[in-house]
User: Which sequence fits this backbone?
């Protein structure tokens, strides 16, 4: 019942009676917060212990969250999975999404290509951003150094270790050949959901789950709902929710606190809560719906799709003949001129349903 409430009551900030809500009502955030908190209290580690965050330590001191997607629910080894669709025990995820430049069974098709916008969302490994409170500076020769460990668990970049090789993803490089129709235009590949093949020499069969709902999302849902309900969130509530997710991969990371926001100009709590959700739940099917319910799609969706920062970085040396236009930040522009219309916040009603029920009216803009 708690899950049904959570999905039903998550507020959509459109205020349109055609989608069930005639106006914005903050009480719906309260329903969502209570539903999440009830689940956490009853079924989390301090309840009956049925669910929690998966805590693999296969990568030294960093708690590797990739195991969530590579094994079935297990109260001890993988307690994070709540709802999932089982996949096969194979290497299909690796074959479809792995980098190019390998041969035989190791050949990937690079079908999921993260953007620079996503890479930029990952802070340094102390939880802050370079030049904005972090003790780390951004190394232009290796901008992926000293970053939140989730970056390397999510994205393969130039210099990543994969299949016992160091990747060269500059266009024309070994792992991004420009004579291939399937090269990575952004300069990145996805490795989330894939097996841990950094130091292995070939792909092997792995169990792959499509996880539809996991405990980490429940924690992030709670933090967001509390903040939106109250226009604030206590450190106590952050520590029982978002910070558990934030610190899971790196316990030495700075927790998100009200004091951190106050002491660092340019930071705000809503943005940081949404950033954590963006990082943690990348490619799990939430992003577009999140932008819609936050009513930020009209700002985010028309933005250019950009790839690696070329100007002023090591790429400018190793990839001298870049064929792409660059933006003000020196990032290559993959796609521009994107548009978003107000009608896109709603889907059109199917024409056969309109014919079956003449009392139905088409959603605005789709007439």
Assistant:
């Amino acid at each position: 019942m708690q899950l049904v409430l959570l999905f039903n009551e998550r507020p959509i900030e459109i205020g349109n009676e055609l989608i069930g809500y005639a106006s914005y009502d903050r009480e719906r955030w309260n329903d969502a917060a209570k539903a999440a908190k009830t689940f956490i209290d009853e079924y989390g580690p301090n309840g009956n212990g049925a669910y929690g965050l998966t805590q693999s330590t296969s990568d030294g001191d960093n708690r590797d969250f990739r195991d969530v997607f590579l094994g079935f629910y297990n109260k001890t080894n993988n307690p994070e999975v709540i709802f999932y669709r089982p996949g096969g025990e194979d290497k299909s995820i690796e074959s479809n999404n792995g980098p190019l430049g390998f041969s035989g069974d190791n050949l990937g098709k690079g079908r999921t290509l993260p953007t620079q916008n996503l890479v930029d969302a990952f802070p340094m490994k102390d939880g802050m951003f370079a030049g904005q409170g972090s003790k780390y500076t951004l190394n232009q020769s290796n901008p992926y150094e000293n970053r939140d460990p989730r970056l390397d668990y999510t994205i393969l970049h130039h210099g990543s270790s994969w299949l016992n090789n160091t990747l060269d993803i500059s266009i024309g490089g070994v792992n991004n050949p420009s004579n291939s129709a399937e090269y990575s235009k952004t300069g990145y590949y996805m490795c989330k959901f894939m097996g841990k093949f950094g130091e292995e020499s070939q792909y092997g069969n792995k169990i792959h789950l499509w996880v539809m709902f996991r405990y980490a999302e429940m924690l992030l849902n709670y933090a967001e709902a509390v903040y939106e309900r109250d226009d604030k969130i206590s450190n106590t509530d952050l520590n029982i929710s978002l910070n558990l997710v934030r610190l899971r991969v790196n316990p030495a990371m700075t927790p998100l606190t009200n004091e951190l926001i106050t002491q660092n100009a340019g930071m705000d709590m809503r943005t940081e809560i949404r950033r954590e959700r963006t990082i943690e739940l990348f490619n799990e099917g939430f992003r577009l719906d999140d932008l819609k319910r936050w009513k930020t799609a009209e700002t985010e969706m028309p933005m250019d799709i950009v790839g690696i920062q070329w100007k002023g970085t090591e790429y400018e040396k190793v990839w001298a003949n870049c064929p792409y236009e660059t933006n003000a930040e020196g990032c290559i522009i993959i796609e521009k001129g994107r548009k978003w219309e107000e009608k896109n916040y709603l889907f059109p009603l199917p024409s056969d349903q309109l014919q079956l029920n003449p009392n139905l009216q088409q959603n605005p803009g789709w007439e």
About this structure: The mean pLDDT is 89. The radius of gyration is 22 Å. The longest helix spans residues 27-43. The longest strand covers residues 81-90.
